[in-house]
Amino acid sequence: MYIRFVNYLDKINQYRKSKISNRNFLVILAVIVGVLAGLAAAALKSLTHHIEEFLQSDWHWKYKYYLYFIFPMIGILLTVLYIKYFIRKSKFETGLTPLLYAISKKSSRVEAHNIYSQIITAAITVGFGGSTGLEAPIVTSGSAIGSNLGRF
C-alpha cells in the first residue's frame, strides 16, 4: 500500500515537473500555506470566542463573578492535562524562541503536532481568561503547516 502511494506521488511529481516550473510551483505552495495558515488563525479566533462566550453568558446566578477569578486556573489546568495526555511523546514548546531555533539549527523542521496543538492550548488558555497572546500560536501553526508541506 505504502509503495503504491509513493509511486503514485512520484508520477504526480514527474507530471508536475513537466508542466509547471519550480518557481511557479513554489508560488502555488506559498499560496496554499498562506490560505491554510489563515484558516488556522480564523479557527483559533473562533474557538477562543466560543469558549469565552460560553463561560461568560451562560451563567445566571448571584456569585458568577467570583468564578472569573478561578477560570484562568481552570484553563491552565486543562491545557496542562491536554499536553500531558495527548502530546506525551513529543516535546511541547511555546513562544517564538523554539521556532527561531528550529529555523536556524534544525533545517526548519517543525513537528506536525504544532499545527493543531498550539491552536488548542492557546484557545483554552485565552478563552478561560489566561494572559497569553494569540500571535505566537498562529505563527507557530503557520510555520508548522509550511514545514510539513515542504517536507511532504
Annotate the secondary structure layout.
Blueprint: H1 2-19, H2 22-57, H3 64-86, H4 97-105, H5 114-127, H6 135-151
Helix pairs in contact: 2-5, 2-6, 3-5, 5-6
Features:
mainly alpha
Give a structural overview.
This protein is an all-alpha fold. It has one domain. 77% of the residues lie in helices and 0% in strands. It is built from 6 helices and no strands. It has helices at 2-19, 22-57, 64-86, 97-105, 114-127, 135-151. Helix 2 (22-57) runs parallel beside helix 5, helix 2 runs antiparallel to helix 6 (135-151) and helix 5 packs antiparallel against helix 6 (135-151). The longest helix is centred in the N-terminal third of the chain and has 36 residues, at 22-57. The model has no long low-confidence stretch (mean pLDDT 85).
The counted number of beta strands is 0
Distance between the termini: 17 Å
What fraction strand?
A: under 5%
Q: pLDDT under 50 segments (min length 5)?
A: none
Tell me the number of structural domains.
1
Name the quaternary structure: single chain
Q: Which bin fits the share of residues in helices?
A: over 70%
Choose one word for the global shape.
Answer: elongated
Largest sheet composition? none
Order of secondary-structure elements: HHHHHH
What structural class do helix, strand and pairing data support? mainly alpha
Radius of gyration: 20 Å
User: What's the mean pLDDT score?
Assistant: 85
